[in-house]
From TrEMBL:
It is a single-pass membrane protein; Single-pass type II membrane protein. This is Biopolymer transporter ExbD. The keyword Heme does not apply. It comes from Leptospira bouyouniensis. The lineage of its organism: Bacteria, Pseudomonadati, Spirochaetota, Spirochaetia, Leptospirales. Its main location: membrane. It is found in: Cell membrane. The keyword Chaperone does not apply. The chain crosses the membrane at residues 12-32. Belongs to the ExbD/TolR family.
Length: 131
């Protein structure tokens, strides 16, 4: 007569699997490319082959909406206030990020760029949507 051995229960220790999953999760969280926060002002930017013209990180941000509204660093103002509040760029190193709605009147765009030129802002980063 044969004596049967009791079957051993096989189990998988998943604690090391959980550790590996957490390490992968942390790696993916750190590897994700974080984008620049989007503006709260909705502008219908014109399309181009690239995202923008210019590559510098610029602290002064000017936005022109199709209804003629002008924003300087998220603060709404008119053309005269904009011209008076804009400081003179004495050393020429400061730049401007310009976001213009594609339906904005060209006259408004010319007025803003003329003010920028008169205040010696020559580095202008024009934002567009990538096609």
């Amino acid at each position: 007569m044969r004596v049967r051995k009791p079957k051993q229960e096989t189990s998988i220790d998943i604690s090391s699997l959980i550790d590996v999953l957490f390490i992968l999760l942390i790696f993916l969280m750190l590897a994700v490319r974080f984008t620049e926060p989007t503006s709260t002002i909705s502008i219908d930017l014109p399309k181009s082959k690239t995202d923008q013209f210019g590559t510098e990180s610029i602290p002064l941000r000017i936005q022109l909406k199709s209804n003629g509204e002008l924003y300087k660093n998220q603060i709404k103002m008119d053309i005269e206030t904009f011209a008076n509040s804009l400081e003179m760029n004495t050393d020429g190193n400061l730049g401007v990020s310009l976001e213009v709605d594609q339906h904005t009147e060209f006259r408004t765009f010319v007025q803003v760029t003329d003010i920028l030129k008169s205040k010696k802002y020559l580095k202008i980063d024009i934002k567009t949507k990538k096609e």
